[in-house]
Amino acid sequence: MRSGQRTFGALTLERQGASFDEGTVKFCEFAAMLAGPVLALKRDNERGPLARCNDGIRRLATRLLGPGFPRWKLGTLAAVLLSAGLILIRADYRLSSEAILEGSVQRVVVAAQDGYIASAGKRPGDLVRQGEPLGGLDDRDLRLEAVKWTHQ
């Protein structure tokens, strides 16, 4: 019995008395030809996954290392070269683009009066507790105005 190019079994028939005639022989050959691929498929499916994996690796090795199959060899060579190129070639991963960085919550500190800053007690990013002053305004103009109004 054959399945494709592989011979895997034989069909043995026995008859008592007369021998097989030509028609019976042809029928048995035809039956073996039809049953061969089906029996080979059943036998292959009953084998364990490790045995089927081993057969697949052997077929792949035959295609890659044996005669013929130039497409398999070229495809494997291209895949190996592409993988080696992607691993070995160094490239910069920089993207250039205009961007603005903004906080999700914006706070505004507004002075009650116009003036100049005399001292800044905290810097950006410092922790501030409630009631702690952030800085001081220059009050020279206010003192001059206060003196002016006290003399009038």
Structure summarized in a few sentences:
With 152 residues, this protein is mainly alpha-helical.
Structural class: mainly alpha
Radius of gyration: 46 Å
Order of helices and strands: EEHHHEEH
Measure the end-to-end span.
128 Å
Mean pLDDT: 87
- Could you estimate the helical fraction of the residues in percent? 40-55%
Q: Could you say which overall geometry the principal axes of the C-alpha atoms support?
A: rod-shaped
Q: Outline the biggest β-sheet.
A: 2 strands, antiparallel
Share of β-strand residues? 5-15%
Task: Tell how many strands the DSSP assignment holds.
Answer: 4
Number of helices: 4
Regions with pLDDT < 50 over 5+ consecutive residues?
Answer: none
> How many individual domains?
2
How do the strands line up in the largest sheet?
Answer: 1-2
Features:
4 strands, 2 domains, 152 residues, two-stranded antiparallel ribbon, mainly alpha
Model description:
It contains four helices and four strands. It is mainly alpha-helical and 152 residues long. A two-stranded antiparallel sheet has the order 1-2. 48% of the residues lie in helices and 9% in strands. The mean pLDDT is 87.
Write the layout of secondary structure elements.
Elements (H helix, E strand, L loop, with lengths): L1 E2 L2 E2 L14 H25 L2 H17 L4 H19 L27 E5 L14 E4 L1 H12 L1
Antiparallel strand pairs: 1-2, 3-4
